[in-house]
Amino acid sequence: MSKSNLKVYVLRLRPNQDLFKELDNFVKTNDLKSAFIMTCVGSLTKATVRMAFGGQDQNEVKIFQEHMEIVSLVGTLSSIGGHHLHISLSTKNGNVLGGHVFGEMNVFTTAEIVIGECEDLVFNREFDSESGFDELAVSPRI
Fold this sequence. Notes:
Protein name: PPC domain-containing protein
Strand content: over 45%
Oligomer: single chain
Organism: Brachionus calyciflorus
CATH class: Alpha Beta
Order of helices and strands: EHEEEEEE
Radius of gyration: 16 Å
Shape: globular
Pfam family, one: PCC
InterPro entries: PPC_dom (IPR005175)
Number of strands: 7
Helix content: under 10%
Domain PPC: 3-139
Distance between the termini: 17 Å
Number of helices: 1
Largest sheet: 5 strands, antiparallel
């Protein structure tokens, strides 16, 4: 276990901005190497989500185009290691859907996001032969 200093950023997205692109731009512009989502509330009109084990294809991507509330956004962000984000959304009927953030995420009214960064660490991705995916690798920041 590593102990690290924490820095906090607050970001508010406006209607029609793409949540994923804006997070990616923010992380790269601020050179965040070990960031994570602390909280996010808001709404979307479009969400592109990769489903976990969707049928025969583990990488089934679904596009949802309706007004949805963001009930959860979690994950890690890194300007050098990439991002791994999952989202949960509530439809107008209160049904919840979710999965891996995979593409366009168009903001409806707002997205209020609090981002933390572990200032003494670096998040990267390394291939894990057991999972078959690039997984989180944490190292000290030099």
